[in-house]
Amino acid sequence: MKIKSILVSQPEPKSESSPYKTLCNKQSIKIDFCPFVHVEGLSASDIRRQKVDFSKFNAVIFTSRNAVDNYFRVAEEMRFQVPDSMKYFCQSKAVAYYLQKYVVYRKRKIYVGSRSFSDLLPMVRKHKELHFLLPASDVLKGEVPNLLDSAGIDWKRAVLYRTVCSDLSDLKSVYYDILVFFSPSGIKSLFENFPDFKQNDTRIAAYGKSTVRAAEAAGLSVQILAPTPETPSMAMALDRYIQTEKKR
Asked: In this structure, what are the phi and psi dihedrals at residue 126, rounded to the nearest 5 degrees?
């Protein structure tokens, strides 16, 4: 079957140089974007019930931009003035650059990993004398606490926001040739919104092993995988799949 339409379960990229726009023009297909999940911040009173006192920590570990936003939001709500001496450990360059929204980058102690949390861990280990706060959502990869515990790090998790399924009722009567997922939460949202969803001829694209496992556990068949050595990005995986289908 010819691929004519794709639904990506994330917000539309703002950049004009988005690889999805390139894919759209190259393959002459329609690509829509719709976030299947969204983030809701917890209140300061919710945080206090977790017995989290920001003043007890002199280092913060950020694994995402959502974590950055919600840490500074809650700090403001709690009237906690983040000290200039605070040390920041960011999982990736993207997260570190985003931190500039709240702090003067060149005047702060900021340590940056290359991509995965395991890349950041050696830097955390070098500062084992610090007390680390990990701002996170209600959904956290098991790898993160396991690595911190195994390294003997003094740390505490603070659940500052939660991932919530979005209302997808507008998509009820809309068909797409490919549905693209990036997290188990996206799969969960699909079936919460459409409990009777049947895959039929729809192809499923999944990014990451945990997303693939969630899709398969829900009874879906995954045709497009990323990242792989040949297709490190989802846009590349989609492009390759579409080209292969055209040759059939």
From this structure: -70, -15
